[in-house]
Design goal:
The protein is α+β, with helices and mostly antiparallel strands and 852 residues long. It contains 28 helices and 28 strands. The structure holds zinc ion (ZN). The site of zinc ion has 5 residues, from helix 4 and helix 5.
């Protein structure tokens, strides 16, 4: 649609032309419980100044219909002013008031005002999600982050509901069976940060207070909400404990009182992402409320997200990037602070292990795509912006900040942050503004650092080269750096040897700067050659680690005996990168997992190993060996499951992995036995979420019937149950199941986001390559229509999710290449997605070659 994809140039021109004074937004959602009602009434009043009286300007709006447009008391013809994406008004005065009345659609895609009906009790729930630019689906506005203004929301809703928004409510008036909430004006914020959550939500309230340095007391009312039917599972105490620990930490470090009044955290259904940092009204995916037993890694992950969003209250909400090029300014910072504050303020002490293992894997993967980009990106328009919420912006950026803290020192870093908040409060910034404060506080020139780390792309690999004399003493230790762009790395090198009980422990640590293609490590000369040389020990820099022959040999025989869990996580990460790069045969990687994963104490690392092992087997192993590999992996998994401590997180993780690997009659019989209660594994509780994992194993192997899955849904007729039943049905190995799943997503836009996701996940089963091979051509044929017709969120899922990634053949690669060369003018964001999938496929083919 013309005008829907706002460009950076348009945004700049508009920021030069107007300054917004205030928004007043009234939403009437009383129709929401009526399934026949598809729209709600939205009335926006914008007051703004114009630098060039007489000029024209547009406001963004994606509405079903516009009923009235009034500029400075003058009624305009809505049909002429509204083109479907913008309302254009001419003849601006110096001071203007624009009123737009529209009918906007309830969303089923998680973009705009999402509507969800709970199958448990029939209750209707609403929430908004806007980033980067979906506030315009709910009210007319200047949809760009640098036109900040105070927002005053008024919401009319069913009287039995509660409504939450960014600010506290000032007045609630009841009229019959409807009620109107009038909220206080917000501080100046960006449009994408506004939020409304409405419905019969269950709420737990609490309070945080803190004495500030000037002796005054800061009071922050806290609330945590979820759907009523999830209330029995809602561990609000734990959530609020982390919340208060975070508020303590950020107040102590940032020295800027939380500026948005109250702090609500709303857990909402069918949410597209982890969470969103709306000031005073943070939204989270409700899967963070655990209906069944989960591992400690899940609690750690949730605490990390709570702290990430809280860091945004300052970095992102109080001070906001000018345009999406500098999205990393907030996301890298929040990602880094999430882990940093977790270690300092909470009981979750594994945060840097998880960071090294998971977040960095995301960054390394993204940074090796042909589509990678510098951390400071070139974001031409909103479609670019949408795709930039990626491993570079979050995880690489956070890795680089972690290194910056090592470089300038913790105190200079936080003092820089404090100045940044005070200097730019309620304003917008670019990269230079952050570098300015950090240079002031550290006394260092960050130009070269910024050029090397923020303004170039790609990941370096560091390899040790060890030369020894006849007695085994090191005569030279060199660190070789490769990559298209060589960078300065501050690293630690760990030298490891076996102690008396066979553990690999660090005997020496050398810290140094690595620059250029070859750096010699003088301090190592004369020492005995250790069993293992671990570069980037302690995970200070951002790089791929390689090994010399001896060290790799040590890991092959003893990876599990590396005593330190961070060092072990780094070793696991390194051998995974070797496998992805075709430098270690996939079967060797699987062998390491089979031999050593059972000893892995860190539950988060273990769960990553499971996912990576499955990927290595299905994508990187020689297809001729795959069946044998499957058998080995499933047998090994069952062995570990039986050996795991009863009732432990490790036991649960292995049980879930068994559900993913089971394929033989014997294993499927055990799975069925666990479901039916005829088989038992001591200490393993087969609760509802585990039951669905087990059903998926049976369904994808053709060992479950539609009737059985319907019966399981009757047992668990919840939102989660419906999603999982949908996935199981789509996973059945029949042509009819595949056709139904494909058609429900590609040929229809009836399904909500959560069920689109479930259908795609069920459709794509690694063990069903022949069954889905016929969808490769239709995939490439549908791409452009899907991109044109669907919301970008749904289109991204379809393009990424249906890519024939298990059809690992040269023929599939040729089809992808043909599509790319035949569609040079397709939307750049669509091309980017296809290029990335194509690159994954080419990588799989190289790895399979290496495994052969
Ligand atoms: Zn974030």
């Amino acid at each position: 649609m013309p005008g829907k994809n706002l460009s950076r140039d348009e945004a700049r021109q508009r920021a030069d032309l107007v300054a917004v004074e205030a928004y007043r937004v009234h939403l009437d959602v009383t129709s929401a419980p009526d399934p026949a009602a598809s729209t709600f009434r939205s009335t926006t009043t914008i007051t703004f100044r114009c630098t060039t009286p007489g000029a024209s300007v547009f406001v963004d709006l994606l509405a079903s219909a516009v009923g009235a447009v009034t500029l400075n008391g003058r009624a305009l013809d809505p049909a002429a002013a509204f083109d479907g994406a913008r309302v254009t008004v001419d003849g601006l005065a110096e001071h203007n008031e624009l009123v737009v009345e529209a009918d906007c659609a309830y969303s089923r895609t998680g973009e705009g005002l999402h509507r969800f009906v709970d199958p448990v009790d029939g209750e209707t729930y609403l929430y908004t999600h806007y980033e980067p630019a979906d506030a315009r689906r709910v009210f007319a506005n200047f949809e760009q982050p640098d036109l900040k203004a105070p927002f005053t929301f008024t919401v009319t809703a069913p009287a039995a509901w509660d409504v939450y928004a960014n600010a506290v409510e000032e007045r609630i008036t009841t009229e019959g069976d409807t009620r109107t909430w009038e909220f206080a004006p917000t501080r100046p914020i960006s449009t994408y940060l506004t939020a409304v959550v409405a419905g019969p939500y269950h709420v737990v309230r609490d309070h945080y207070s803190r004495e500030l340095p000037d002796g005054t007391v800061l009071e922050i009312p806290l609330a945590a909400t979820c759907r009523r039917s999830l209330a029995p599972y809602f561990d609000a105490d734990e959530i609020l404990t982390v919340t208060k620990q975070g508020l303590d930490f950020f107040h102590a470090e940032f020295d800027y009182p939380y500026p948005f009044g109250k702090y609500d955290q709303c857990f909402v259904p069918e949410y597209n992402l982890g969470a969103m940092e709306n000031p005073g009204c943070v939204t989270f995916r409700e899967e963070f409320i655990f209906r069944s037993k989960v591992t400690e890694a899940a609690y750690e992950g949730r605490a990390n997200v709570i702290l990430h969003e809280m860091a945004h209250m300052w970095f992102g909400d109080l001070v906001t990037m000018k345009w999406w090029d500098d999205l990393w300014l907030k996301e890298s910072f929040a990602d880094f602070m999430g882990s940093f504050s977790q270690i300092e303020a909470t009981k979750y002490q594994a945060a840097w292990i998880t960071f090294a293992n998971r977040r960095k894997a995301w960054a390394y993967r993204q940074d090796q795509f042909p589509t990678t980009h510098p951390i400071t990106a070139d974001i031409r328009d909103l479609e670019d912006a949408k795709l930039n919420f990626d491993g570079i912006t979050y995880a690489k950026g956070a890795s680089v900040l972690k290194q910056l803290v090592a470089y300038v020192g913790r105190e200079a870093f936080f003092e820089g942050a404090r100045r940044y908040f005070k200097r730019h409060a309620f304003g917008n910034t670019v990269l230079g503004d952050l570098l300015d404060v950090l240079e002031e506080t550290s006394g260092r020139d960050l130009t070269a650092w910024s050029a090397a780390w923020l303004q170039t792309s790609g990941v370096n690999a560091l390899t040790p080269q060890v030369t020894v004399d006849t007695e085994g003493r090191i005569t030279e230790l060199a660190v070789l750096q490769d990559g298209s762009e060589l960078r300065p790395h501050r690293i630690a090198i760990g030298l490891y040897d076996r102690d008396t009980d066979g553990s690999l422990i660090r005997t020496d640590r050398i810290e140094l700067d690595v620059t250029g293609a070859r750096t010699t490590v003088r301090e190592a000369v004369g020492r005995m050659r250790p069993a293992l040389v671990l570069l980037n020990d302690d995970d200070l820099t951002y790089c791929k680690i390689r090994f010399d022959e001896v060290s790799l040999g040590t890991l092959r025989t003893g990876l599990g005996s590396v005593a330190d869990s961070l060092a072990r996580a780094l070793a696991w990460s390194a051998v995974w990168n070797l496998t992805r790069d075709g430098l270690m045969p996939a079967r060797d990687y699987l062998d390491l997992v089979l031999r050593f994963a059972g000893q892995e104490s860190d539950i988060g690392v273990l769960q990553s190993l499971h996912q990576q092992a499955k990927g290595a087997l299905e994508l990187y192993a020689d297809p001729a060996w795959r069946e044998e590999g499957r058998r080995l992996l499933a047998d090994g998994t069952l062995g570990e499951l039986r050996a795991a401590l009863p009732g432990s997180d490790h036991q649960l993780a292995w049980a879930r992995f068994l559900a993913q690997t089971a394929a033989s009659a014997e294993h499927l019989q055990l799975v069925r036995g666990l479901l039916e209660g005829t088989a038992r594994i001591d200490g393993l509780e087969v609760d509802q979420e585990l039951r669905w994992s087990l059903w998926l194993a049976l369904a994808s192997n053709g060992s479950a019937t539609g009737e059985e899955l319907a019966a399981e849904l009757r047992r668990d007729n919840t939102a989660s149950g419906r999603r999982q039943q949908t996935e199981c049905l789509a996973a059945l190995p029949t042509p009819g199941a595949k056709a139904a799943a494909w058609s429900s997503v590609v040929d229809s836009d009836e399904l909500p986001n959560a069920l689109v996701e479930a259908q795609i996940a069920g459709f794509n089963q690694a063990g069903q390559r022949e069954l889905t091979a016929g969808y490769t051509k239709p995939y490439f044929e549908m791409l452009e229509d899907v991109w044109a017709q669907r919301s970008i969120e749904i289109a991204m899922r379809i393009v990424g999710g249906f890519f024939p990634r298990y059809q690992t053949s040269e023929a599939t690669l040729a089809l992808a290449d043909a599509w790319l060369s035949g569609h040079p003018d397709a939307a750049p964001a669509l091309r980017r997605l296809v290029l990335e999938c194509r690159d994954d496929l080419a990588r799989a083919l190289r790895a399979q070659q290496a495994d052969r």
